[in-house]
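#structure-requests
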Amino acid sequence: MRHTIPPQNSVLSFFLLVTLLSIPFWLLGGGSLPLPMNLPVSSFMWVTPAVAAAILTYRANGATGVKRLLRAAFDARKIPHPAWYLVLLGLIPAFYALTLLLMRLTERPLPDSVEIPILTAPLLFLLFFAPAAGEELGWSGYATDPLQARWGAFRASILLGIVWQVWHVIPNLQAGHPASWIWWHSVYSVALRVLIVWCFNHTGKSVFATILVHTMDNVSWSLFPNNGSHLDPLVLSLVAWPTVLIVVAGYGAGLFSRFRQSARA
């Protein structure tokens, strides 16, 4: 079944609706969740992109469209080759491992005893899969295609990454992060969004693929010493962005511009 691209003006409606739906979470989300990692109650706003996408999809395509949207969370069959799972599950942990190594070499603040509870990774994966699905059903399943149909994938992913991170500013403030941390984490996350869009476009536009990447980012952050509290997002940004530039340079501008033409075909 051919994927139907939402009309261009619906993306702005999607952004606005996600914002409106998130306001109650921002107002009530000043406390911390009872988890080892530092997450405010407002982090439950992860549900709003999926809800916004479902509302707008229902308005345009009825219940059938909503069912198709929700099924996209498990469209693993679109992934063209099992080797892609090495990228989807391994690339982001590699970023964090290299970040930890660089922080050691440059003597950045780390705990005296670094312990990485790797055996908790499967549990963390299950914990973070639903939030990643809630976000990616909206960001990837609804908003990515119409944005890249107009702007091309690279510029669309930059724009989507910026909107995505502006949406995260209030929860990051409620978690007690300083402005410098929020800035550099946002810089990293825009790079992450470019890679998510790249994976989306090269796995048959599989939303499940983007959920895996998003989930592994949350898992990797949680495993970073101690429960993510010592992560230096500046170093993480310096690790991630060269990979983005290699992807762009290695495949050429056509990698990101050709999707505009294919989406209109």
